[in-house]
Design brief:
The complex is a heterodimer of chains A (267) and B (181). Chain A has a single domain, classed as Up-down Bundle (Ferritin), CATH 1.20.1260.10. In chain A, 63% of the residues lie in helices and 0% in strands. Chain A is built from eleven helices and no strands. The mean pLDDT of chain A is 94. Among the domains of chain B are: 79 residues, Fe-S cluster assembly (FSCA) (GMP Synthetase, Chain A, domain 3, 2-Layer Sandwich), CATH 3.30.300; 47 residues, no CATH class. In chain B, α1 packs across α3. Chain B is elongated, with a radius of gyration of 19 Å. The two termini of chain B are 35 Å apart. The N terminus of chain B is likely disordered. Classes of the chains: A mainly alpha (267), B alpha/beta (181). The interface between A and B is large, with 45 and 31 residues. Chain A: This is 1,2-phenylacetyl-CoA epoxidase, subunit C. Chain A: It comes from Tepidimonas fonticaldi. Chain A: Pfam families: PaaA_PaaC. Chain B: This is Putative 1,2-phenylacetyl-CoA epoxidase, subunit D.
Chain lengths: 267, 181
């Protein structure tokens, strides 16, 4: 622990990265609450959103403990701006094909589930490996989150297969969803400085080492779904370093507005 | 904290605390107690303050909205006892439905919720095989009303994070299934 304690910044950045991933995807998917395609699926996404926000809370609470002072889970969620968030860009994108930030439009169930699939296919092996983190609170959070990520992966896989191997329309839309999202997964494998330092300190996991496992899950599922695994070439996003798409500001604007309009309010 | 707190914690006061907490049920499933659910992990003297009882609870799912309520219930109950107490949330080892007692399983069934099977039978991680649209219960889930195992999963996610929605294909009743976790 001593070697780790000397660099709290790395640990904090690493925990924030994991927490921001969970919070941002949770907030994004919560937009389906009340408008899901069928009641069961509305509940399914709301349930998973609860898991994700719960994971974010545990991680933020640990950051608050490490930073001390006035930092709380709430200040981390509500009073940081977009450039201070360290989530993957993949998770902040709207639930639709590419569009500008202010554009309104229907949400796309295929894009939502394709994203959940790509993310949870990573998080199952990642949480699994993080159970061995030298930072014990993180190992404990990983053990809890792993069980939840398995449910999420199973749910998303079902839908990828159901829609991919469905009608011509659902197949085409699922393929378009993967074509759109796949390039963003490059961010998984491109380590940021704080990730490298976290791996060196034994608190983090080298995500690039999970790429083969992830690929195997993705290929097997897409094959069963009669979908083609699209290219993941192109621009490599850097959300982990605070460089986000325009979509994150809109998402945070909605999430943070009440807390900022009434700072310190309780009920 | 109580001001009359100077007395060290005794085995007798621990037993009193346990007895009081035995009356506390899960806010979402009011027929099972926190102890039966495996949520209440320990009642012990705090290591850093011999006059303080430490009650250790563990969350079921990370986002379980009942945890705040459970913590409040524990505090309120012990305040009435006049015992100075600290409630600690402990994550590791992660909660599993395998900790649920047999008594709890019977009560769930009687309440209309199919109890969870054993976790060890669940698929584990990346190698888990995807089977197309077939509900993957490792053990048959028996209808809590008629006992038939001729049942199907309607949705893996139900009325709370810990339950799935099932239906009996014999008596046609829908029911909740507490997921093995």
């Amino acid at each position: 622990m001593d070697a780790v304690a000397t660099d709290t910044t790395v640990l904090v950045d690493y925990l924030l990265h994991l927490g921001d991933n969970a919070l941002v995807l949770g907030q994004r998917n919560s937009q389906w609450c009340g408008v899901g395609p069928v009641l069961e699926e509305d509940l399914a996404l709301a349930n998973q959103t609860l898991d994700l926000i719960g994971q974010a809370r545990l991680l933020y609470q640990e950051v608050a403990r490490l930073q001390g002072g006035d930092v709380t889970e709430d200040t981390l969620a509500y009073f940081r701006d977009a450039h201070q968030f360290r989530n993957y860009v993949l998770l902040e994108l709207p639930a639709s094909l590419a569009r500008v930030g202010y554009a309104q439009g229907d949400m796309d169930w295929g894009v939502t589930l394709a994203r959940n699939f790509l993310y949870s296919a990573l998080m199952v092996p990642l949480w699994d490996a993080l159970q061995g983190s030298r930072h014990e609170p993180l190992a404990a959070i990983a053990a809890k989150s792993l069980k939840e990520a398995r449910y999420h992966l199973r749910h998303a896989s079902d839908w990828v297969v159901r829609l991919g191997d469905g009608t011509d329309t659902s197949h085409a839309r699922m393929q378009a969803a993967f074509d759109h999202l796949m390039p963003y997964t490059q961010e998984f494998w491109t380590a940021s400085d704080f990730e490298r330092a976290a791996v060196e300190a034994g608190i983090g996991v080298d995500v690039a080492g999970l790429r083969d496992v992830w690929r195997a899950t993705v290929s097997a599922t897409l094959q069963e779904a009669t979908l083609r695994v699209p290219s993941d070439q192109g621009y490599v996003p850097q959300g982990k370093n605070g460089l986000h798409s325009e979509h994150l500001s809109y998402l945070l604007g909605e999430m943070q507005s009440v807390a900022r309009a009434h700072p310190g309010a309780v009920w | 904290m109580s001001t009359a707190a100077a007395l060290p914690v005794t085995a007798e006061s621990i037993a009193r605390v346990r007895a009081a907490l035995d009356g506390l049920t899960d806010p979402e499933i009011p027929v099972v107690t926190l102890a039966e659910m495996g949520i209440l992990r320990d009642v012990r003297p705090a290591t850093d303050d011999p006059a303080l009882v430490e009650v250790v609870i563990t969350p079921t799912y990370s986002g379980c909205p009942a945890m705040g309520q459970i913590e409040d219930d524990v505090r309120a109950t012990l305040q009435r006892l006049g015992v100075p107490v600290r409630v600690t949330t402990q994550l590791a080892p992660a909660w599993t439905t395998d900790w649920m007692t047999e008594a709890a399983r019977d009560k769930l069934r009687a309440y209309g919720i199919a109890p969870p099977g054993r976790c060890s039978a669940e698929g584990t991680g990346p190698g888990e095989r995807i089977v197309r649209f077939v509900p993957r219960a490792p053990e048959p889930v028996a209808c809590p009303r008629c006992g038939s195992t001729h049942t199907r999963e309607v949705s893996h996610f139900g009325s709370t994070a810990c339950k799935a929605l099932w239906q009996c294909l014999d008596c046609r009743e829908p029911f909740d299934h507490f997921k093995p976790h």
